[in-house]
Design goal:
The protein has about 220 residues and is mainly beta. It is built from two helices and 28 strands.
Length: about 220
Amino acid sequence: MDDFAAKRQALLESGVRMMDPDTVYVEAGVTVGAGTLLLPGTILRGNTVVGANCEIGPNTMLTDCTVGDGAVINSSQCNESTIEAGAHVGPFAYIRPNCHVGRDVKVGDFVELKNSTIGDGTKIAHLTYVGDADVGRRVNFGCGTVLVNYDGNRKYRTTIGDDCFIGCNTNLVSPVHVGDGAYTAAGSTITEDVPADALAIARARQVEKPGWAAAHRAKKARK
């Protein structure tokens, strides 16, 4: 029996569940709690610790991570970070080193986290980059949010308070502070601090030119 097979057998005997054991790879230093389900394509590396009653996979790799009880990590990669109990990560999320994902946090598809703390109950549903940030509790990130943390020379840090609503396609140009309960309007590029409970709008006013499209099509037709 090879080392991976021996480890799988030991985990099965301790109450860990596997849909297809031959497709699961767990290194010797890993700990997994009873009741956790390891789905096909799961790779657990280094000193990873997974709690009880979690669901890991399919196609997920954790390296030197700590995962709390009841967390779900689906089709994602996580490195040198902590994911608290009840969090949902993935599919297709990427958690880079030095992240702390709080309890019951949602980190959805095509979300990347780096060197950030995410407060309990926050939702980062899709297509968002959060780097070098301290995010409060119960924050909602709209699709396409980017924390602009690098100016080509230095990395800067952003702070977002509790109960904030970050509108879709918001750029937060670090370093900025968004106060508790504040909103940012969709499509805004935020370069200054936002006070608590304020709405920050940083986008051009819409301008309409009646008949322009019809005239443009006619001009092309004449050519």
